[in-house]
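dumping these here so i dont lose them again. two proteins, back to back, each one seq then structure tokens. dont judge the mess
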Amino acid sequence: MSTRPAGHVARSTSSPYSETHSVSRDVTSGGTRLRTFLRTADGVEIDSVYESGSVVYDGDSGAARSVPEPVFVVAHGFTGEADRPHIRRVARVLARYGAVVTFSFRGHGASGGRSTVGDREVLDLAAAVAWARELGHERVVTVGFSMGGSVVLRHAAVGGGGGGGEGGVDAVVSVSAPARWFYRGTAPMRRLHWLVTRPSGRLVGRYGLRTRIHHRQWDPVPLSPVEAVPRIAPIPLLIVHGDQDGYFPLDHPRMLAAAAGENGELWVEEGMGHAENAAPDALLGRIGDWAVARAG
């Protein structure tokens, strides 16, 4: 394992699981779009996309000047990826409020490695946040959905908080996240545990869902979301959950909000289901407004 810090970013020109993705920079009338592979602290290549309307590059060096708008780093749910339609929709809405970084977690899409279902993924997010800082953004907001919601909580708790630094964030939004690990109280979560823990399930994940899942169990078990939340303060935290979530009932967001105390804000959304697929544009717009107001 690498001894580099979690937020270390190295650029890679290889595309481990795609013949169509390549390192690219496009400057359009709407702004700048970058796509590259970031190397995490433990050596996994993460397919990452940056989109902004106001980044300015200095000459041929590629160095970016500091830009005033915030950047939203979006962490998708399990079996998602940067090119999935709902993630592109999230990015389009949040782009009204700032720049956007999307990426595919390890084991998903064109990224390398295998999914650890929320454990080592904190290193993927750390690399994306560090890249956003490298591109000149002074304010970084992480927005995570489901598995990604648990990752943004842990990232902020274990070193991504504090703002201003390479790996720091200025606000955190967790949507449809679990409060505790190993939850099997709903049928979708029982199916997910089969997918992750059984060889036949992992085959379905790989060939049916484009998600390569690691066969090893967690050792040690990572900090749970509800244990992570109290460590995020004073970074502003927003917890969002649908009252029709079929994966995690409302005791999960309520546990997270209770653990956050005065530092956290809870939105229970009437009629909303689970994660990015169920988040309407109007809600994403409210999240953008909240983040711009809270990120400083």
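---- next one ----
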Amino acid sequence: MKDLSNYRKSYEKSELLETNIPEDPINLFNRWFHETEEFSTTEEVNAMTVSTIGLDGFPKSRVVLLKKFNEEGFIFYTNYNSEKGKAILNSPNVCLSFFWHSMERQIIIKGIAEKTPEIISDNYFASRPDGSKLGAIVSPQSEVIPSRDFLDIKLKELEKEFENKEIPRPENWGGFLIRPIEVEFWQGRANRLHDRIRYKLEDNFNWKIDRLSP
């Protein structure tokens, strides 16, 4: 067994103070996102962990790509028949998290998921490369398959079928909008006395801001 007890790092790059934050979490998320994009070496700033409660009662987390965010919330796309799609449709309470190591920052978002309108899913699907479109059709996501060849053969068949044709969005593929109800911002600080600022939605309108002990 490998002992990791001596793995330590001092976090000293920034601070998170109540005197320098906006009244709502989306504005602060936007600020942190663009600072990470501009000043860090993070390759996919929009990579986030989505945690759901599965049909088997266990939580499960996986990394997906955030594709849009605004004052309503956070959007990503998936196969609705996948394990995470079924989990979200069965229990829409989900958690998103971002960890930007180079900035010593983490964001944890609790929210309620809902399907995006079809027009939004259609527009995003239409913007994807043809290979990604066909991949969404080929893959019975999360299902057991006999081999890799199963996917490769099916892909070649679809490439011939849709050659020089428009590729339609499958009905079981689309977006989820996560409407946040709680957002916690974590900024690493020295001596493990990290800054933790939590925004909590009250009355479906106002955000209550609290500092949490590290």
